[in-house]
Amino acid sequence: MTIPRPFKPRILVILSIALALLLPEISFANDCTSSDIILADQGDVNLFQQAFSGGGTCDTITGTLRIEDGDGTDITDLTPLRALRYVNGDLVVYDNNELKSLEGLEGIQRVGGNVEIRYNNELGDCSALYELLDASVTTRTGVAGDVYIDSNAAGCNSLTEVVDAVKYGLVACPVYEYDPFGNGIPWYQIRNQSDVSELEEITGGNCNWLAGILWIGIDPATSYIGDIRDLSELSWIRNISGLAIIFTPYLKSLEGLHNLAGGFGIIEVALAPIESLAPLSGLTDHRNSFPQVYENTGVSIQGTNIETLEPLKGIRSHSPGYTWWVSGNGWLSTCEWADGAEPTNFAAIGDNAPGCNSYDEIITYWGEPRYNLTLTASPGGRLEYGQVSGTNTSDLRGGSFISTNRPSVSVPKGLNYTFSPSPNNPYEFSEFLSDCNGGPRSSTQEFILSSMEDDCYLHVNYSRGPTDPSNVAAARTLSGSSCKVVQPALEPKVEWREKGLLNVSDQAVEVICPLPRKSYLGRDQQYFSDNTAVAIDFSVDAVSSAHTDCTLVAGESVGDFVAPATRNFRLHGWATDSGEITIRPDAYPTPSKADVLSYHAVKCTLQPGVGISSLKIDALK
Questions:
Q1: Cα–Cα distance measured from residue 248 to residue 188, given in angstroms and rounded to the nearest whole number
Q2: How far apart are CA 515 and CA 579, in angstroms?
Q3: 3-class DSSP state for residue 145?
Q4: What is the DSSP string of 562-611?
Q5: CA distance 352 to 329
Q6: Digit-coded pLDDT (tens) for 93-140
Q7: Is the peptide bond before 591 cis (omega within 30 degrees of 0)?
Q8: Winning range, highest mean pLDDT, from 251-265, 307-321, 465-479
Q9: Which pLDDT tens digit goes with each residue over 501-547?
Q10: Rounded to an integer, what distance in angstroms lies between the CA atom of residue 125 and that of residue 165?
Q11: How far apart are CA 346 and CA 471, in angstroms?
Q12: CATH number of 469-620: 2.60.450, 2.40.30, 2.60.120, 2.60.40?
């Protein structure tokens, strides 16, 4: 039997053709003839293959490659090195004053030692090393040793900066001024709301990366505090080297910075009523962008109204000086970090809510659920622990000046704590009211919270001692029926009674209660001065447990109460004395001219089921 044979030659031919097609794609490492290579001028770079390939094309340096121009020489172009694939030792690009790009090194797939890119003043484009360094960031397969990238131009000052520039399509904004502290750091300053709108135009309108510090808030040169309230027009910014939001009393939200992504050097938010760091959740890596100035950089959150550092949880550091400053945040109780993202240093941590006052406390309450603890007091005192207090205004205070109308703080499960009342003269402690676990210790007038297991409240009542008649210049009691509904359309929702009025609807109603006292706010005579004040005692028909928010206002006419004469205060529905409270004006409207007649009133937002029965006014000497 004859075996057919025509197919084998065809197979061999097909395989031969396939191999011929594949062979050009198969490369074999070709070592350069010298193990350690130094390129000191452009001529060395241009003749690289001729000098070290041995007649072919070399792609592997078995030792170290150092690119450093000498005195009087300038390296500007690395494209003659395009065939390189492996550097088994270190890769060093150092002190090349005219080099602007690493184009030519994009073929390098692995470095067996360290990568050092430093002190190249004009080098701002390191994208040629993106594939190599991105592998190092995620799996560390690209570089066996360490990576040192700093002291170059913007775009090439850290490992993450190089990677971010490519990953997020960053275009560096021009530098138009430097920091006022003399450190030579690019500076982008926002002093007021109009600066927010104008920053994009000032930087040219075609960039998205501030490779310096974005300073928002108080002017460090003049101490000027502007009216910054909204950052939404900054959404064009994709990356920053440093963010400082300092003393912005009207700014509550960071919305507008929500497109920030990648690495950063410094984040500082201080003395600002910011309530959430959520817009910063796109930040992933810390880098020390300013090593020539700061040894340690990182995250500083001080004197804010935030409750958690969760949005910053995943930040990982590529710098040994990654530091946290976290203090004076009255509602902050969650300060946990992700695996592998623990800060290197804690420069300051404390005066926050329970759960975030020390490293040990963070670890103790790690992962525990948080419950709301409401702290209130009336009429003339406060409950306090650390920087968190419930006062006669029911404002919890974080930091040195922040206040809001939030009466509760988040507390970790299992917390035990001792609270002590702090009455204001002429008040004295009366009693605690609470549904928390624990109870008062009467011998020391303290409340012992034995264990936080659910949402609960703690309220302290104070009693006001008798006022010395000789200290009262005048006194008068008004019926709550003298109050008026601010919006006439809501009048049917209020019921006037013999001794006052009551909100009988299912929605809040704003009322204003004019006071009989009026004064001239001239240059020489003021009824309300540093030595005299008005004490107002309210009683609230607390049909519900809702709170009633009020403020003392003043104006130049009965129909124009616009200027607050004191900060807001709150009456508490669960107070056993029906919510008596005493306030004293601590600010006055600025008159349009001398000797202007001033009128005062109390303005309140009555919740459903809450009313005002009387107001007693004592004009104190």
A1: 16
A2: 19
A3: coil
A4: EEESS--EEE-TT-TTTT---------PPPSSTT-EEEEEEEEEEPTT-E
A5: 5
A6: 999 999 999 999 999 999 999 999 999 989 989 999 998 887 655 555
A7: no
A8: 251-265
A9: 888 888 889 888 876 554 444 334 344 433 344 445 555 554 444 56
A10: 9
A11: 52
A12: 2.60.120
First to last CA, the chain: 132
Helix, strand or coil, per DSSP, at residue 22: helix
Residue 80 phi, psi (nearest 5) = -65, -5
Band of residue 403 on the pLDDT scale cut at 50, 70, 90: very low
Q: At what angle do helices 130-138 and 159-167 cross, to 10 degrees?
A: 110
CA–CA dist 451, 50 (Å, integer)? 78
For 310, the token pair is: 């969760």
DSSP string, 427-473: EEEEEEEE-SSEEEETTTTEEEE----S-EEEEEEEEEPPP-GGGEE
Pick from 59, 51, 175, 42: nearest CA to 96: 42
Rg (CA), the chain: 34
CA distance 588 to 590: 6
Q: Is the per-residue pLDDT at 10 higher than 80?
A: no
Residues 6+ apart with CB under 8 A from 95: 68, 69, 118, 119, 120
Q: Residue 348 and residue 116: Cα distance in Å, rounded?
A: 33
Place of tokens 């616009």: 562
Q: Are 316 and 286 in contact (CB under 8 A)?
A: yes
Confidence of residue 297 (pLDDT cuts 50, 70, 90): confident
- Residue 81 — φ and ψ, nearest 5°? -100, 15
Bridge pairing between strands 456-464 and 427-434:
antiparallel
Domain 187-364 classification at class level: alpha beta
pTM of whole model > 0.70?
no
Determine phi and psi for 345, rounding to 5 degrees.
-130, 150
Edge-to-edge, what's the strand order for the sheet holding 239-246? 187-190, 209-217, 239-246, 266-270, 297-302, 322-327, 345-350
Alpha carbon 521 to its chain's center: 41
Across the range 351-367, mean pLDDT stands at 88
Q: How far does CA 548 lie from the centroid of its chain? A: 31
